[in-house]
# Entry
Amino acid sequence: MASHRLLLLCLAGLVFVSEAGTVGTGESKCPLMIKVLDAVQGSPAVNVPVRVFKKAADQTWELFADGKTSEFGELHGLTTDENFVEGVYKVELDTKSYWKEIGISPFHEYAEAVFTANDSGHRHYTITALLSPYSYSTTAIVSNPSH
# Structure
């Protein structure tokens, strides 16, 4: 129970940092940003491979964008306002390779978040994830873009 509270506290802190503004590249106008925190080390999860898929008309997943998190645990510049249209998207974090890189054998192969974007008009999305070797938690911050 105490570890669950600690995870929720860490995730709440991550969301607070997200609301405070972007760190690193300063690309706050990016319509889709990923933030990842390592709950074991209490630090940003660096070099986590990220793939974003968009659901096609035939219900298959097509690769939309990919990259790795920065030294701040963030990934900006995945798409543009013009390309990030209404649809169902899946963010997949390659947690297995991340944990293996730091010498930990994880339970999950990957963590994912599937969501519908821009169905109520154009929005900006920050998908945040809190990782541990045997669990993960995700949340999203959805905001109206400021021009």
Remarks:
- Strands lie at 32-38, 43-44, 49-55, 61-68, 74-75, 87-93, 111-117, 124-132, 135-143.
